[in-house]
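User:
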Amino acid sequence: MVEVRIPPTTIPATTFTIVDRWMPGLGPKTLPEVEHPGELVELGYHTSKPEKKRRDALKKAVHRYGKKSVEGMLALQEGYRSNEKGPAYETFKMDRDWVSRHL
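Assistant: Predicted structure:
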């Protein structure tokens, strides 16, 4: 039997697209920007308002945008404030948990 060695070939990167697999070290390192800022504020939501008014605004938002979308909005705001861990972070976290459990 005769052994034949073939030199390796390389494929230029322009012939295929690498898919972002969200593995450690790959992908974006920042949070996405808010697509439509003020959507929750238009319905009366603000972290400084009392719990009853915030929850009424969240009910309106779930009716208009859907549960998953509102959870995503709150999670994104929670993510923006995750380094501070202040009262706004706690409010967004509490409201996101409330929406996921009760609506």
